[in-house]
Every structure is written in structure tokens, then in C-alpha cells.
């Protein structure tokens, strides 16, 4: 028995019963991946995740890698390497990679369903194992040379990194100072120090490919200020032959420190120094200066990964809490609590524990539905691209959903893991005997990296709503409204649909208040004052969380409709319980989460500038 408790039944429910993924499997670009194969893949990955992958989760936390400054190395614990090898040897990491890099094409929805299982059981494995996925990105954007590199990254199982952050450039990536100096032979020398780089040193593969944002110097027309002046370079740990992958000289990029962290300790977070004692040779990706846009292809995938990781952790946190609650006997039933001789009961009998368990269950299921719904939109994007006619609407909807998956998913998961899942264990939750304390420590990072929650909120409002002129949001509103106007649930979800309608109205009002403030900040309009933009900034996280709540409620109710239908048929006892649980989650979420949006609306509509007017000394 390992720490990891998966919920494959709910994953399959979303994929096949709610989102109808059967329609995309087994045809077109996914001809070789039919429903039966996809289910078998999920079963096997689930089994692997619960056993070999999860086995080293705690051990690797207790004895994390140690950095040796003499050799610039930070080898990983043997137990973790065993888990990592089990994953790589299974070759499931190839699922979802295109055929061009020797992958096994599959719809993104299957890939993210599978990813939940790895990210829930041992998330660092996923990170070290994503080199081939980086290879896809290099292949997609590259010259012939780069395409060979992209393919080698899969064939040789090389590990890769994304290298943006510097000591003075975190959220503000455009403040980066790392330089790239052009060389006669067409390569570049990279100089500078990057910070917090995941997977930049380890002993899992003989090569590491760093994808580095740096500012070219001395070349006319490129290398200006901000993010737009950054270009993307492939910087290998070792020089190599692009045809054979044979390694050559050590390149001048060295890890000069590994951070001591609160959690996710087996994932090495490194300071990376370029060109200190010897040149760090780099190759411009695609031979075009388009660094930030190229890097965002990686970031988008990584933001989806972080949200999925967070939600996967909450899921196993909840299932561990549920198991504990079913066996922990403490106190008498509330209705007998004046009777000192009343029998003691398991804590699942206490209303407050039930409140907590249902809160965990409904958020987990709502957010899993959010991840897989977003992945199903990515299926649309991928299918349209494969057919040669990009689907701009689906792309914009995916863009809109990504900050919600990442920002809402990570904040809700990390908070609930602490306030509800760990809490269910009482004092035992604080001990290392149970996985909860590690889950809380490991999940906190999800609100920080790949853009903090504040950045996700701003991305949502300014880029995904305002810049998109509300089109993707309108598309989503249309879908929710269509559901509201349907007879979903055949009368059995009437109250919940009303709550959803009110929630939708409240979130629309929050968005409208923010849009009005944004307009009132325009100095070109009469009375326009740029300071009104602060009112928007005071509400971007509120909008992120509120919209997340509405989307999760909608998806949960869609699931409840499917479950109610299923409950009309002949079912085994366990299936009956499963579907009853689905209806209960949706009802609970609608009744306990959505009404809170009314107060969020009042706060948003009454936002003033008091917080911004307050002198710093008064804080
Ligand atoms: C990190 C890694 O934290 C942690 C875990 C690592 C684990 C690695 C392993 C797993 C990864 C697996 C990946 C596999 C690869 C998959 C590939 C797929 C095949 N969407 O608004 P502007 C672009 S890493 C798309 O003016 P500022 C766009 O080009 C560190 N693009 O921004 C835009 O131009 P335009 C993570 C976007 O004011 C341009 O940027 N660090 C988006 O200049 C400029 O935009 C962070 O995440 C978007 N949402 O800069 C930094 N947004 O407008 C967080 C921007 O013309 N900070 N672009 O289209 C931010 O995101 C800032 O808002 C900022 C601001 C840097 C963008
Ligand atoms: P800051 O940007 O200094 O932010 C500090 C606080 O201010 C935050 O609360 C933030 O939300 C807020 N804030 C900042 N700017 C604004 C704003 N404009 N509006 C509102 N609030 C704002 N980076 C990589 O390049 N590659 C990696 O592989 C990588 N892996 C990482 C792994 C770990 C374990 C960690 C801790 C970090 C990693 N990072 C990586 C860096 C990570 O992406 C950054 O830490 C993150 O983007 C935040 O930057 P920062 O830490 O400098 O915080």
C-alpha cells in the first residue's frame, strides 16, 4: 500500500460519460487509440501510479538530493530513480506525443487524464520525464537542426528545463538580464545567472537540454527591453552530434546551487550559471527572435500541468481523509451527546466532518471536471490543427480556461488540503505518519510557480477577457445559459439550476464592475482617471475564484444530469453509490459555494481606492 489513492472511476466518468471522448478516439489522427486501448492505458497507468511511482514519494522527501559544489552535481535518491525508471521503461510518456518525434498520438484529454495519475502519485517524476514533450515543442518551432534535436530528446530520453527566472526577474520576466552574444559560426554565447530552475541538475539522464530566454546583444533590431527583446536558445549541458546524439565536450553551463525547500524536495530547483569560466554555447530556436511567444507554448502546457498536479493532490488528500474518517472512532452521535453512555461513533457521523468531506469531494470533482473539460477543448484545437483549419474559437476558450485551471485549481487545492483534508485527521494529520503534511508542503508551490495567482488573475482579465473582447467568455456564458435553459435533471436539479443562474448573474456583475473601472481609467474618456485601474487590480483574484466556482458548478451539474440518468437503470451497488455521490457533490457545491458569490459581488461593486491611498507606513 502506498500513499496514493486515485479516482479512476471519476476520471473515466468525465471522459466517457460526460465529455463523450469516445467520439474522438479511434478515428482521424487517433485511429490507433480507440476507446478500448485508451481505457487499458488508463488502467495500467493507474496501477503503476499506485505502486511503483508512488513507492518513493515519502522516502525522496525525507532524504532529498544534496548539492555538491565541487562537482556541481545533485544526484537523486535511489528509491526515486527506481520509480522514475519504472515510468520511463513503461513508455507511457510517449502517449500524446506526435508521430514526428516517435510518439503515440492521442487526444490531449487522454493525456491529461493520464497525467493526473502521475502528478498525484509522484509529481517530480512528471517534471523530470517531460524532456520528450519539450522535444515536441522544439520540433514544432525548429529548423532542420532543431527538429533532429527534438527527436533525439524523445529517443534518448533527455531531460529538459525551462529557463526564465532570474534573481531580479520573477513575475516580471522582461526584466531578465541574461545576454546572448552572436558568434561567427552561427551559435551564441550565453552569459548570466538564472534562478529557481527545475530539473537543471540530476543523474537521471546523461544530457540536459536547457531552453533559455536571453537578450541578444549587438544585433540590430533585436534584444530590446522587456519580454519582446528576449530570444529562446537551446543550451545543452554537453555538446552533441545532432545526427547521432553522441555527447561531446562539457558546455559552460553549470548548476551553482540547489535550493532548500518547503516541499517537492526531490525536484531539484537550481541556480544556473552560464559562461562563468568557459563559454556556454547556445543555438537560437528556429533561428528566429521570437523568444517569449515560443516560451509561452511551454508555459501554457506547464500551467495546465500545475493545475492538474494541485487537483490530483487534493484528490488523494480527500481519499486518504475519507478512509481515516471511516475508521476513526471519536465521540457520540450529536443527537445522543447528552448521554454519557451513548456508543462512540466513527467521525463520519459528525455533521461538521460530513460538511468537510463533502466540501473536499465536491471541489475535487468540480476541478477534475474543469481540467478534463479544458482538455476536451484542447482536443478540439488539436483536431482542427490536424485538419489544417485552426479553430480560433476553441483556442481562445482554452486560453480563457488555463489561468482558471492553474490559479483557481492551485489555490483551492492547497487551501482545502490544509483546512479540510489534513484537518480530518485531527492531530495525526500533523505527523509524518500520514501523507497529508507532505501533500500540503508539496502543493503550496502550485500557487507560486508558472506565474503566481496574482499573475493568473491579471492574465484572465486583461488578456483573456478584455483583449479578447469578451468573445471566449461569451462562448462560455452561452454554454452555461444553454444548460440553464435545458431541462437538465428532469426537474430534479431545478433548485441547483436556479442557484447556478444567480451565480452566473453575480459573476457577470463582478466582470461588469471591473470593465467599468477599466473604462473609467482611460484618460481619453471624460473624467477618465488612470488610478481607476487599481480598482480592477483589487478584484482580479476575486474574478478568477468566482469564475472558477461558476464553471465548476456548471460542470458538476452536467455530471449530475448524467448520473441521474444512470440511476434510472439497473446498477450494481457500487455503481449506484458512485452516481448518488455525483449528484450529492453537485448539489452540495451549488448550495454551499454559489451563494457566496453574492457577497463577492457586493465587495467588487463597492471597491474604492482606500487600499491604494493608504500610506505604506500605515500598513
Ligand atoms: C516555472 C516552472 O515556474 C515551474 C515548473 C517547471 C516544471 C517543468 C516541467 C514541466 C513542463 C512541461 C512542458 C513541456 C513543454 C510543452 C510544449 C508544448 C508542445 N499566453 O502581456 P505581455 C506572451 S517557469 C500566451 O505584454 P509582459 C505573448 O507572446 C517560470 N502568451 O507581458 C505576448 O505578446 P503579445 C514561469 C502569452 O508585460 C508576450 O508574452 N514564469 C501570455 O511583457 C508579452 O505579453 C512565469 O510564468 C499567455 N497567457 O510580461 C512568469 N501572456 O501580447 C509569470 C503573455 O504580442 N509572469 N504572453 O501576444 C507573467 O506571466 C507576466 O504576466 C509576463 C508579463 C511575463 C507575461
Ligand atoms: P515575485 O515576482 O517577486 O512576486 C512576489 C509577490 O508579488 C507574489 O505574491 C506576486 O504575486 C506579487 N506580484 C509580483 N508582481 C506583481 C504584479 N505585477 N501584480 C500583482 N502582484 C504581483 N522559473 C523558471 O524559469 N524555471 C523553472 O523551472 C522554475 N521552477 C521553479 C521551481 C520552484 C520550486 C520555485 C520556487 C520557483 C520556480 N521558478 C522557475 C520561478 C517561479 O516561476 C517564480 O518564483 C515565480 O514566477 C514568481 O516570481 P518571484 O519568485 O520572483 O516572485
From TrEMBL:
A Gene Ontology cellular-component term: plasma membrane
E.C. no: 1.3.8.1, 1.3.8.7, 1.3.8.8
Keyword set includes Lipid metabolism: yes
Cofactor(s) listed: FAD
Gene3D superfamilies, per database record: 2.40.110.20, Butyryl-CoA Dehydrogenase, subunit A, domain 3
Pathway field: Lipid metabolism; fatty acid metabolism
Domain Acyl-CoA dehydrogenase/oxidase C-terminal, residue spans: 290-457
Pfam families: Acyl-CoA_dh_1 (PF00441), Acyl-CoA_dh_C (PF12806), Acyl-CoA_dh_M (PF02770)
Keywords: FAD, Fatty acid metabolism, Flavoprotein, Lipid metabolism, Oxidoreductase
Superkingdom assignment: Bacteria
Annotated Acetyl-CoA dehydrogenase-like C-terminal domain residues: 478-615
Catalysed reactions, semicolon-separated: hexanoyl-CoA + oxidized [electron-transfer flavoprotein] + H(+) = (2E)-hexenoyl-CoA + reduced [electron-transfer flavoprotein]; a short-chain 2,3-saturated fatty acyl-CoA + oxidized [electron-transfer flavoprotein] + H(+) = a short-chain (2E)-enoyl-CoA + reduced [electron-transfer flavoprotein]; decanoyl-CoA + oxidized [electron-transfer flavoprotein] + H(+) = (2E)-decenoyl-CoA + reduced [electron-transfer flavoprotein]; a long-chain 2,3-saturated fatty acyl-CoA + oxidized [electron-transfer flavoprotein] + H(+) = a long-chain (2E)-enoyl-CoA + reduced [electron-transfer flavoprotein]
Biological process according to GO: fatty acid metabolic process
A GO molecular-function annotation: long-chain fatty acyl-CoA dehydrogenase activity
Domain Acyl-CoA oxidase/dehydrogenase middle: 162-274
UniProt subunit comment: Homodimer.
Job description of the protein: Acyl-CoA dehydrogenase that exhibits broad specificity for linear acyl-CoA substrates, with a preference for long-chain substrates.
Name the UniProt record assigns to this protein: Broad-specificity linear acyl-CoA dehydrogenase FadE5
Native source organism of the sequence: Microlunatus soli
